[in-house]
Queue: 2 jobs
Job 1
Amino acid sequence: MASWKLRVENYGKIKSAEIEIAPLTLFVGDNNSGKSYLMSLLWGIENLGVEALLGSEYLESEETDELSEWLISQMKTAIQKKKHIAPLEDISEMLSSVLNKGLEKNKDSFVRRIFNSDNVSIGKLSIDLGDFKGRILDIELNEQTEFLSLSIDSGQTFVIHRTIIESLKDRKYIHSFLIQVLYKRIMDIRTIESDTERVIYLPAARTGFMLTKDIINKVGRNNTFNLPDDREKFTPFVRPINNFLDIMGDLNVGQKKNENYIHLAEDIEREMTDGTIEFSDMPNKEVMYVPDGHKKGIPLRLVSAVVTELCPLILILKHSDNIARFYYEEPEMCLHPQLQSRMGKVIARIVNAGIGMVITTHSDIILQHINNMIKLQNRKDCDEICDRLHYGKEDLLNCDQVRVYQLKARAKGKTVVEELSCGENGFIVPTFNDALDSIMSEAYEIQGDLHE
């Protein structure tokens, strides 16, 4: 996964923040401090794509012109030489300038698009693309097809026909398109929202959405197809929630199983739900829970909150493909402490299967499991302990895979965001520890009085 840093100032309650996304990124800290705001912004960058960051129109600036001319010249060189490698370090300043000028121009509309509202403000928004040392643009011409293939750091390839480059018709459109593709590959995000890679937001109110999604869809149809006088008035959901509902609705089409991720879904069912989540054979494709040892399914409205909370994750892992990252709000919701520990195990396995995760959590148990897996990875007797505790390599984590950010409310309602360092035993979260210390001190005083 590409490494870049998000920088914001005066974003909702957040005074300032600098976030580097990792395979596993956790936001912890006070309630109502802005964790979901940060997560929604990161989701927007990955999901809405480069076009939303830069704008759909060609951004008129000296740096943009220089960047597009550089890119065209590299492609023309590749046409002449059949293969060409260009170091991105040569244009690092241009790349940073073009992106951040686009963000400065489009930041308000970008945030409005995420929240479907004008009520969320942002002072500054910028992205640090990181160190380009050693990073290359690789361009190669296939003489038979006359297509040019472009890749960054030997990653995913993009192809374009040589005649488009040589004719330069619709110059600004072509240049804007090529620049968007370049940033897509550098940042490893979408070009536009309709790209096939899945960046999936799992909101906190999962049970409510799963139980009412059909009603929500009905309201949507009424407001789309009825006459204005017959339409129901409603406040729109934020875009990440709409994305979640769309994805859950799409899963009802067909019952194919995704072989890449189904083992992860089966792990959750075996260790946490004591049964399977399936679509019914009825035309409405209702989601059903089938308890272990039973053949007949039970509708979600009749099962426990544990099952309904885990249901979306299980169904997505079973039936969706091309999952790039989950944005998961409070995965501990409705889970007993024992199941929270197992959720930590699920999270590690998802990350090690190549799916990124960004998580908001209040669970010190989930974090402790992650810390345990980091510590275990570095022990000399790792294999012996894994055998004894029934862990595998897919359960282990290292510090480089994880970033933890603590959000703490300060005076005047502003939130300070601090990146926590990973030590030998993992991450220490002061807000968790302070709360536990306070509870234990109270318990000691109260229980002590009882024994006197």
Note: The chain has a mean pLDDT of 86.
Job 2
Amino acid sequence: MNDEVLHLTEALVARASVTPDDAGCQALIAQRLRAAGFQTHALRFGETDNLWATHGSGAPVLALVGHTDVVPPGPLEQWASPPFQPTRRDGRVYGRGAADMKSSIAALTLAAERFVATNPDHLGTLAILYTSDEEGPARDGIQAVMPWLAERGIRLDYALIGEPSSESRQGDRIRIGRRGSMHGYLTIKGIQGHVAYPDLARNPIHQFAPALVDLVNTRFDEGNAHFPPTSFQIYEVKAGTGANNVIPGELSVNFNFRFGTASSETSLRAAVEAILHRHGLTFELRTRVASAPFLTGPTTLIDAVVASCREHLDVNPLLDTGGGTSDGRFIAPTGAEVVELGPINDSIHKVDEWVTIADLEPLAQAYGGVIGRLLR
């Protein structure tokens, strides 16, 4: 068995790169890439490290994209082994970031090294784009790198992102787009008063309750061929003055929409406002789109990924747009085709995060197959 991907995965997991601290992951990778003939650029924006590395020149430009940062490990006493001490057991390697996404980083890096070693005069440009700010605010990561590339006349044609896309078997699901995310910050206005004199006050909690039922039961759209219906979730409700005999004067409600191309910020906001007006509420509403939905087309990159999954992973992947958000949201608006392929996502962000050891080398081979189909 070829253990190169396993060893590099363990070396990366051993670096406690909690957002935005890269903890030396990119320096390790850059050293390898330079030895393989890549030109590397360390781009630091704010507290975030980004790595841009290229081999070859001209179009098409294929970028292998990933993040070296991880979420915090949580309660250390709940881990069976230390989160930043990669541990092998039961055919798996355990550690924070093992699945999300240091195994993908290792596989992408090895695939790039192997490809240029056997194809030194390949077509176009093979690029590596890694950031340490994907799990956090994401302001100084890929979002900041894309304008840097544009200023230098660099346009990505394809972006293969190593996010853990698989469900029960590696490669069984690839992301060809992502839903958008819109936050809403709602304040319901009431009149503060004594709980013993409700006729002299107006309780915003009571007033909002019927509207809440309507919001939860509303089907904001039916989705379409590529995206499921829009999802509405309230994640924070606050009211009260700290006293048990005071009717509050305001209620704040924060919510989130996950939406596809069947809706927009304008249509979703209008639907919420219509419900609030129908219930006679006095309110203030602010909305913010954290990311717009995107869908990859045409199908050059999709076809390459599907063919490589069939060849190297012996699976016919489902084309999917589910999950949360990814850095693809910053790349797709530039016109690049974006596809995500990575390991099983069952353990991501959990205690005792893991990746199957036997899946590591095949993943690198699948990535290599994509590169070869586009740049050979």
Note: The longest strand covers residues 180-189.
